[in-house]
């Protein structure tokens, strides 16, 4: 009765580690009837990385006839993904002779999940506090730099024409930094589901051109080329231009970090309906625009792909200094969702990664654009 009504999973194994018996809790937790479990090697229930340790501890129990705590091990589960089990190996004796080893499994999966949620909440609370202090301390100096650049720009005689682009680039960078400070407060606010937007009619072609400009010098130093593929007719959407700019800057910056010297970064804009040149005018009620940023770098490991947009989701190589803190792509997902759009990451068949941002078109502006196209076609 104690065996079958235990709240823990219990297995009896022989000296070869073959399962001889399993209790009812074990059948339920392992989603396998006893007749299928009996005769299996107990190590086959665990992930490959834990099997060697389990074999070593089982041998120690048989040799010493003493209980051996194995600690935490991971066990694949057809119903629950991966289970985290605390494993204990207990010798079972009869008249001083070892007759079996009981493998006792205590499920820690839910406890571990709750611990991770608690750690995540604590980290978010700390980041929120840090973001507030950071924004307060750095906003004023940046505003001062911006005002100085604006005053210098007004004095046309103080700057040669060749340097005017440099001033414009610096002013754009300062605006982006100020926007990042506000975004930190938005992302780490108490509720993450309602990212506030300041929308207007936005030219996608113009945004893409502005995104690439600040990276020209760094790209030239690494001998990396930008290739822009955009429709001849301007693509218009309703969006928060500054935040859309931030999203694309994040994607282009990542592409630049992971691109090899002499590589190419391709930024492509696909509109959901064709313009005047295509001579095709479809219903735009469901039309969308897709902006893609593709690089020729190492790509994304398959095990990392499902997690790239998670907060603190990072590649598993801690020695790679190019890896960020797992915040930029999470912000990109928030912005895409706030625009009723979506973002996805894939690997290119030819090598490298490609990020796609899909957003709804500005239907009113697009309809007006189509009407103008029709008029010019008729003429």
Task: For this entry, give a set of tags.
single chain; elongated; 3 domains; alpha+beta; 379 residues; 10 helices; five-stranded antiparallel beta sheet; Beta-Lactamase; Heat Shock Protein 90; Helix Hairpins
Question: Topology, please?
Answer:
Layout: E1 9-13, E2 19-22, H1 24-30, H2 34-37, H3 48-64, E3 68-77, E4 81-94, E5 97-107, H4 109-154, H5 164-187, E6 200-203, H6 204-212, H7 216-221, E7 225-229, E8 236-239, H8 241-258, E9 264-270, E10 288-294, H9 328-338, E11 342-347, E12 353-360, H10 363-378
Parallel strand pairs: 7-9
Antiparallel strand pairs: 1-2, 1-5, 3-4, 4-5, 6-8, 9-10, 10-12, 11-12
CATH topological fold name of the largest domain: Heat Shock Protein 90
Listing every helix as H and every strand as E from the N terminus to the C terminus, the arrangement reads EEHHHEEEHHEHHEEHEEHEEH
Strands of the widest sheet, in order across it, are 2-1-5-4-3
- Residue stretches low in confidence (pLDDT < 50, at least 5 long) are 274-285, 318-322
Describe this protein's structure.
With 379 residues, the chain is α+β, with helices and mostly antiparallel strands. The protein has three domains: 9-107, PAS domain (Beta-Lactamase), CATH 3.30.450.20; 109-190, Helix Hairpins (Orthogonal Bundle); 191-378, Heat Shock Protein 90. It contains ten helices and twelve strands. The strands form three sheets. The chain has a five-stranded antiparallel β-sheet with strand order 2-1-5-4-3, with helices on both faces. Helix 4 packs antiparallel against helix 5 (164-187). The chain is elongated, with a radius of gyration of 30 Å.
